[in-house]
Amino acid sequence: MIPYTVNIKLAARTLTGTLNLQNKTAVDWGWQGLIAQGCHSSILIMDPKTAQTIQVLERHKANVVKVKWSRENYYHNLSSPYCLRLASGDASGKIIVWDVVSGTAHCEIQEHSKPIQDLEWLWNQDASRDLLLAVHPPNYIVLWNGDTGTKLWKKSYAENILSFSFDPFDPSNMALLTSEGIVFITDFSYSKPPSSAGKKVYIASPHASPAHTKPAPAAAPAPTGAKKALNKVKVLITNEKPTAEAVTLNDCLQLSYLPSKRNHMLLLYPREILILDLELSQTVGVVAIERSGVPFTQVIPCAQRDALYCLHENGCITLRVCRSTSAQEEAADPEQSVQELVYDLRSQCDAIRVTKTVRPYRMVICPVNENKAALMVSDGRVMLWELKAHTGRSVVNPSSGLSPLYSPVSFCGAPLGPNQKRIQDLSLNSMISQTLIAGEAPPPSSNQQEVQLKFLLTGLLSGLPLPPFAIRMCPPLTTKNISHYQPLLAAGTSNGSVLVYNLTSGLLHKELSVHSCEVRGLEWVSLTSFLSFATSSPNNMGLVRNELQHVDLPTGRCFAFRGERGNDEPPIEMIKVSHLKQYLVVVFRDKPLELWDIRTGTLLREMAKSFPTVTALEWSPSHNLKSLKKKQMAAREAMARQTVSDAEQSSVESSVISLLQDAESKSETSQAISAREHFVFTDTDGQVYHITVEGNTVKDGARIPPDGSMGSIACIAWKGDTLVLGDVDGNLNFWDLKARLSRGIPTHRGWVKKIRFAPGKGNQKLLVMYTDGAEVWDTKEVQMVSSMRFGRNVNYRILDIDWCTSDKVVLASDDGCVRVLEMAMKSASYRMDEQDLTDPVWCPSLLLPRAALTLKAFLLLQPWSGTFTMDITQVDYNEKVEIKGLIQEQLNSLSNDMKSVLQDSELSLLQRCLLVSRLFGDESDLNFWTVASHYLQLFAQARQLSVTSEGGSEETQPPSQNHLDICHDILCESSYFQKFQLDRVHLQEVKRSSYEHTKKCADQLLLLGQTDRAVQLLLETSADNPSYYCDSLKACLVTTITSSGPSQSTIKLVATNMIANGKLAEGVQLLCLIDKAADACRYLQTYGEWNRAVWLAKVRLNPAEGSDVLKRWAEHLCSPQVNQKSKAILVLLSLGCFYKVGEMLHSMRYFDRAALFIEACLKSGVMEANDSSNKLIEAAFLDYARLLRSLGLREGAALWASRAGSAGEQLMEELFQGEGGVPEAVLGEDEVEVGLESTE
């Protein structure tokens, strides 16, 4: 037998069921690694790795319509720790910001009383991370402080706002999806509301454009789906309001910016996804569904790769990855080589069976790794899918035209070591390598492996089925059954199955299909078996089929308890089991009751026709088992002595002995003893009858006349010397049987549906259920303890009640939930640290702030020992045992793959920092280390090359194998950024459809230095166009520019005059024509056009001039009114200003990041320890040592202090005072250096 520990204390919890339609959009997967989902008015918090619900938040009164986790894009320390903060909005317009770990609300926000349309935390500025933007219907946008609940500003718009999307690359841009079109806002700021009403853009529905309705000529081959869609969307976006017949209802389901490349946006329609380039407001790509395909309901664009997760109406999730443009050169038709962005279907998961009640609602994907998706189904199921990469050649037929996907050759941002362990499925960008762009040579295929992507179902959470429920808790815990007790709750459902939940963990223990119709009631007959009854719907005679089943849980065996009986008879009203579980009474509606023996399964008595109609019935807790046992023991002794002398036999009744001898020959004694038990019941007149059952004899006892003050009795409860009657008018009558007193109390709550006494000796609490709620009474004092009422303090009706322990009640309600509550019946969320989870959950945010930071430091660096350990007890860490235990639990819950990679000696410091920031879901760390590790390696390689070629020039950057992904935009290498921009203009050129578009393309080409192409476009202007003359002259100018002195100075003069007179764009163009792009950048920056200046610098200037422009931009970002220092740091990293980055990190008090970064710089040789840099190095190391000391990691603190010069020595003395001086391990500085080298 498995040793089973009993947790007597059950946590209050909620078992949830099916979702409400309003919960459809209420789901979010946070950077912290957990999924939040609204279910009616509660919010479930789920852990996707172990597929278990770890918290249920209850405070909303209306259905939850939106939930959003706060972002993790800030530096974490003790004052801004890792925490689980969630905002949720409900259908009555209330927003609550939660602290999820304690289950309490930070603040509650109410503006209007309509459902919240959209919520988002602002993540992109360093000033505050508490800002929450919400859409309050019909047309208000409000910015709140999510920590205090104060309103910062409010702005109204002309149309109803449906949702919004922020530009991930520029925090001042956002787009609103309104009922009529899209509104673009370009001046969003947290300090004041947007001043303008935004630029309005109307969407002509793709189905209404004339191209779509033209019949195709019969001879021409029918165009394929994608071509058809392209014809449709030639012009999609217009600034004029479309005419009435052209505009159908705006059926755009969703709009989102693409986080993988700047200035692109997707619009989702049921049958197509459109990709727009916002600079041209032009469609550059379409994902269309064939006629027989299943329509889209949602799409999530990825950031790490240009890929889309799409959810279809049948619950199928598909992954589409953007096709490389470079692979298309071999296409037979040169016209088609670059026509649009194509997203190829790379993987799809199985669909679900959609019925009236079961349909897919929403999908969310993991924001950290983008390789896991969760699907919410309306019946409360959550399906967890994971994307897996399989290496190996594809078996796809070559005619499908899909180019193979390759896996990257690096892990965590660095090339793989020869025998380094890695996790291929860590994240989307470690599974497939970048999409190639035109003009880029594909890497040699020798060292790359082809990969196939597959979805794997890794977890499933299911909820309760649809209400109504009948619930019953198993018999209570006693001293006798404590060794094997399990707190099981049986819930009978409307489809005839019985679900048994273990309330310690809240998980489904067993689901048994017992009946063919709705379960009406359950009674346990032992700790592991129960009886349940169900009645079918009545026929025209009012007769039904009754099913009464006996179920044995361990084996799942289930048999019809009443044998062949049950067809065409009046419905069963209730079943009642006696206290010793010997007898069962079955009460029918219009038929006398039956009395059964449970142990043998025999019918003892079917009452006569004249028997009164029963309205309520209860077994008495008193019985004569004890006296029988005593007699039995005496008889046993007598039998033992019988062989000695027959004289004493007379002292014991011979009848008992013979009875016992019979019994022992049949079976064990305990089974055969039939103790005497009683029950009472009332008839329609309120008369109380008393009946005794012993063995197979049934005796009629006393009758007590009705109490005049009571109406028709609806239920009875009996415990000890107290008997309680409840009637249909809401009166409770308390009888004290010892003192022979009765006391009636009117509750004025209407029909008393059920009354139940709490378990436990001497516990006289009583739970009463009414049609509109429930109450707990103390029958000793005869007074009410607590009450809940529908509409007053809860918004659900109660269907069934029971006690689950002596101080907790369990309620089934019509919102499909079963709640375990304290006796006060206040629905409260629980503290997560008090919970008993079956599987440990990896989520550092659950730890105390200090402990989470300790765990991070522990995973990042363990230089004090030659090997890397995953056991926190092996390090010198003085902290309370409980906290140590919690940290160790977190470490144990990591997967074995992850542990082996973390313990791998080949893992470099940079890779480790990246991996840990991924594990912690730390957005700001992840961005920093991704860029830092890329450029540190790049500049280290450049340094080695320049050393080897001795006299070689400094500026040549080595051809790096992998670029920084284009989602980092301006942080990418200039050469790569330039290629990407050319590729993009080329695409825009193919797609242009109006003079406006052509003019924009020509302007871009001139800035990019593609003069020949620009001239061709300028000459296309038609003669009746007002700017025909101007464009023609411009074309002449561009072709005849020579670098002779006078023409240059003239053009420069004209350009400066233009700029001074407000024609900035034209002046900048002229300057670019004469290769004065650096001046152009300076003018742009002077006029505050920072983004355009940076763009121009990246595509036109040589590295030296370019870095000047970018450094000026970084200074601007650091200025107090912009306050985006973290972005400035990334810009400086991309320029290789590593010393400046170290200084900034240290001055911003990012101590661990500063020390580890400087260490990585020293390691890769891009920074040297000399007199000028020593001051910074020592200061950074000293502060990191102090930080580690405050966290309690002494060895780590000693190590960093030993490298921090004289101030460090002082700290060492403080660390080890009273311990006989400094330990030898850290005496020699050189030795430590060597030690570090060897561990890396």
**Helix count, DSSP H or I runs of 4 or more residues:** 27
Number of strands: 60
Structural class: alpha+beta
Strand count, sense and closure of the main sheet?
5 strands, antiparallel
The largest sheet has its strands arranged as: 14-15-16-17-18
Describe this structure in words.
With 1240 residues, the protein is α+β, with helices and mostly antiparallel strands. Strands 14-15-16-17-18 form a 5-stranded antiparallel beta sheet, with no helix packed on it. Strands 27-28-29-33-30 form a 5-stranded antiparallel beta sheet, with no helix packed on it. Strands 1-60-59-58 form a 4-stranded antiparallel beta sheet, with no helix packed on it. α11 packs parallel to α21 (1125-1135) and α25 (1194-1201) packs antiparallel against α26 (1205-1216).
Keywords:
about 1250 residues, alpha+beta, 5-stranded antiparallel β-sheet, 27 helices, about 25% helix, disordered N terminus, disordered C terminus, cell projection
Summarize the structure.
Residues 22-318 form the WDR11 first beta-propeller domain. The protein is of the alpha+beta class and 1240 residues long.
What's the structural blueprint in terms of helices and strands?
Blueprint: E1 13-15, E2 27-29, E3 35-39, E4 42-47, E5 52-58, E6 64-69, E7 85-90, E8 94-99, E9 104-110, E10 118-121, E11 131-136, E12 140-145, E13 151-156, E14 161-166, E15 174-178, E16 181-185, E17 199-203, H1 210-213, H2 225-232, E18 237-238, E19 254-257, E20 264-268, E21 272-277, E22 282-288, E23 296-301, E24 307-312, E25 317-322, E26 343-348, E27 360-365, E28 372-377, E29 382-391, E30 405-406, E31 410-411, E32 414-415, H3 428-431, E33 450-461, E34 470-473, E35 488-492, E36 497-502, E37 507-513, E38 519-524, E39 529-535, E40 546-552, E41 558-560, E42 572-577, E43 583-588, E44 594-597, E45 602-606, E46 616-623, H4 625-642, H5 654-666, H6 669-672, E47 676-682, E48 688-694, E49 697-704, E50 713-719, E51 722-727, E52 731-736, E53 741-746, E54 752-757, E55 765-770, E56 773-778, E57 783-789, E58 798-805, E59 808-813, E60 818-822, H7 849-860, H8 881-892, H9 896-902, H10 909-920, H11 923-948, H12 974-991, H13 995-1008, H14 1011-1018, H15 1028-1040, H16 1045-1060, H17 1064-1073, H18 1077-1086, H19 1090-1100, H20 1103-1118, ...
Antiparallel strand pairs: 1-60, 2-3, 3-4, 4-5, 6-7, 7-8, 8-9, 10-11, 11-12, 12-13, 14-15, 15-16, 16-17, 17-18, 19-20, 20-21, 21-22, 23-24, 24-25, 25-26, 27-28, 28-29, 29-33, 30-33, 31-32, 34-35, 35-36, 36-37, 38-39, 39-40, 40-41, 42-43, 43-44, 44-45, 46-47, 47-48, 48-49, 50-51, 51-52, 52-53, ...
Helix pairs in contact: 10-11, 11-21, 11-23, 12-13, 13-14, 14-15, 16-17, 17-18, 18-19, 18-20, 19-20, 20-21, 21-22, 22-23, 22-24, 23-24, 24-25, 24-26, 25-26
